[in-house]
Amino acid sequence: MDSVIGRLRTRLLPALLLAFGVALVATGMLSYTSAVEPAPVARALQSYEPLPTIDPNLTLPGGATAAPDASFPPDRVATRIVLRRLGIDLPIIAQPPGTGDFPLCDVAMYLPSLGQPGSGRATYLYAHARDGMFLPLLIASEDNNGQGMIGYTVEVYTSDSWRFLYKISEVRRHTRDLVDATNDNQGRLWLQTSEGPDGTIPKLQVVAVQVDAQKTDPNAAHPEAHPRQCR
Description:
alpha+beta
C-alpha cells in the first residue's frame, strides 16, 4: 500500500500540477489595461482571512521532498508584496470561495499548490498586468528583455509577521508552463503577469532568490485588502 501511495505522489501530483499550470496560463488569468478594454466593474466581497494551504510533506517531481526551514510554520501564507523600484505594493490573498477562477483586481494572489516563503519550495505570486498591479513588471520586461530589473529587491511579508527579502535573478518572457516553478526546491520567489490581453497564453515570469528574512511590524505585514471582480 505504501508503495502504491508513493507512486501516486511521485507520478500523479506532478501531472496534476502541470495540468493546473497549463490551465492557469491558458485561461487569460492576467490581462493588461488597454484603450479598448472596458472599465472594470467593482463588486463588494465579504471579508475573509487568508487560508493556510501549504503541505510541507508534499513530494516533488522525481521523488524529492523539499526540506523547509526548521522554523517554518505550516500555516504561514504570503500577505504583501513590495517592489519599491517599480512602485508595486499589493496585498496578497488566496482566491476567495465563490469568486470563480479569474483572478481579482487590486491584489496579488498566491498559487496554493506550491510553497510559501521559508518552506523550501517555490512561492508563486501572480497579478493582473494593470495599473496599480503588476503592469510595471510587464513594462520593464519589454526594455532589453527586462535586464534592468536584475538585482532589484522584492519584499514579501507573511501572516506571521516576517519580511522576506529577495533579489531578482531572472526575467523569463513568453513562458507557457509552470514546470520550472514546480521543480523548484530552492525556495525562490516567482512572479507572473500577462504579456497580452485576456486569453493570451505566454506569460512573463520574474524569478528572485532569497537573501534575507527578519521579523517585522505586524501592521506592515497585514495590509487591508480590497479585492474586486475585474473581468
